[in-house]
Amino acid sequence: MFSNLIALPLLITALTSCLAQTTHTITVGTNGTKTFTPTDIQAAIGDVVNFQFVTGNHTATQSTFAVPCTNNGGFKSGFKPASANDIATFAIMVNTTDPIWGYCGQVGHCQAGMVFAINAPETGNKTFAAFQSAAMSVSAGDGSNSSSSGSGTSAGANGSSSSLISSAGMSTGTGAASSTAASAGSASTLLPCSASMVGALLAGFTWLL
Ligand SMILES: *[C@@H]1O[C@H](CO)[C@@H](O)[C@H](O)[C@H]1NC(C)=O
Ligand SMILES: *[C@@H]1O[C@H](CO)[C@@H](O)[C@H](O)[C@H]1NC(C)=O
Ligand SMILES: *[C@@H]1O[C@H](CO)[C@@H](O)[C@H](O)[C@H]1NC(C)=O
Ligand SMILES: *[C@@H]1O[C@H](CO)[C@@H](O)[C@H](O)[C@H]1NC(C)=O
Ligand SMILES: *[C@@H]1O[C@H](CO)[C@@H](O)[C@H](O)[C@H]1NC(C)=O
Ligand SMILES: *[C@@H]1O[C@H](CO)[C@@H](O)[C@H](O)[C@H]1NC(C)=O
C-alpha cells in the first residue's frame, strides 16, 4: 500500500507529461530557399521537432555553437531530397533545456546561413543570430564533412514513410517508431507516448486503485 502511494504520483507525472507533449514543425526548403522555417524555436523537454523537407535536397544535422557546420556526433537526418508527392520528414525529441544547434549539411548550405536553433538564448553571446553569423564565416570547404555519411539516422529512400525519431540521446521507445506515412501536406504526428504506453499507464492506475 505504501509503495502504491509512491507509485501513483509517478504514474500521474508520466501520464501528464506524455499528454502535454508538443510537436513543432520546421519546414526545410520553403519555396525553394535554403532555409529552415522557423529558424529559431523554443521547445520543452519531451517535445518533438519534426522537420519537413518540402523542396531541394537538405539535411537537419546537429552541431555545436562553436563549430557550426560540422556534425558534433548528435542527430543527423541524412539527405532528404523532396519529391513532388512525398514530403520527407525527420524528427527528434528534445531531451535537454540547453540550446540545440543545427544546420543543413548539403555542400555550401550551412555557409549560406541555412542553420536553425532550438532553445537558443535571446540575449548574450550565443543567440541564433550569432550562430548564423558564425556559420556564414565558416570556410566553404569545411561543410563537406557535415552530415552525409554515417550510420545512425539513415535517410530512408522512401521519404516520409520512413520518418523516424532520433532523439538527442534519449531513447524513444517502441512507440516512437510507429510513424504514420505523411502524405503530402499533412504533418505526421509522431507520438512517443504511444497509445499502448498511455494504455499501460492507465492500466497501472486501475491496478493501483
Ligand atoms: C512562398 O511563395 C508564395 C508564393 O510566391 C508566397 O505567397 C509565400 O509567402 C512564400 N512563403 C514564404 C515563407 O516565403
Ligand atoms: C542529395 O545530395 C547528396 C549530396 O550532395 C547527393 O549525394 C544525392 O545524390 C542527392 N540526392 C538527390 C536525389 O539529388
Ligand atoms: C560576450 O562577448 C563580449 C564581447 O565580445 C565579451 O567581452 C564577453 O566576454 C563574452 N561573454 C562570454 C560569456 O563569452
Ligand atoms: C572531416 O572532419 C575530420 C575531423 O573532424 C577531419 O579529420 C577530416 O579531414 C574531415 N574530412 C573532410 C572530407 O573534410
Ligand atoms: C522503399 O519502398 C519499396 C517499396 O515499398 C521497398 O521495396 C524498398 O525497400 C524501400 N526502400 C527503403 C530504403 O526503405
Ligand atoms: C540528450 O541528448 C544528448 C545528445 O545526444 C545526450 O548526450 C544526452 O545523454 C541526452 N540526455 C538524456 C537525459 O537522455
Description:
The chain has about 210 residues and is of the alpha/beta class. The protein has 2 domains: about 1-20 and about 195-209; about 20-190, Cupredoxins -  blue copper proteins (Immunoglobulin-like), CATH 2.60.40.420. About 20% of the residues lie in helices and about 20% in strands. It contains 4 helices and 11 strands. The strands form 3 sheets. The protein has a 5-stranded mixed β-sheet with strand order 2-1-4-8-11, with no helix packed on it. Strands 3-10-9-6 form a 4-stranded mixed β-sheet, with helices on one face. Strand 1 and strand 2 (about 35) form a beta hairpin. Helix 1 packs antiparallel against helix 4 (about 195-209). The longest helix has 18 residues, at about 1-20. Mean pLDDT is about 75; it is low at about 145-165 and about 165-190. It binds 2-acetamido-2-deoxy-beta-D-glucopyranose (NAG) (6 copies). One 2-acetamido-2-deoxy-beta-D-glucopyranose (NAG) binds near residues 144 and 145. This is Cupredoxin. InterPro entries: Cupredoxin (IPR008972), Ser-rich/MCO-related (IPR052953). It comes from Naematelia encephala. Keywords: Signal.
Give the total of domains. Answer: 2
CATH superfamily of the largest domain: Cupredoxins -  blue copper proteins
Q: What is the chain-wise order of helices and strands?
A: HEEEEEEEEEEHEHH
How far is the N terminus from the C terminus? 10 Å
Portion in beta strands: 15-25%
Any idea of the CATH class of the largest domain? Mainly Beta
Helicity range:
10-25%
Bound molecules: 2-acetamido-2-deoxy-beta-D-glucopyranose
CA gyration radius, whole angstroms: 18 Å
Large-scale geometry: globular
pLDDT averaged residue by residue: 74
CATH topology of the largest domain: Immunoglobulin-like
Task: Count the beta strands.
Answer: 11
Q: Please report the number of helical segments.
A: 4
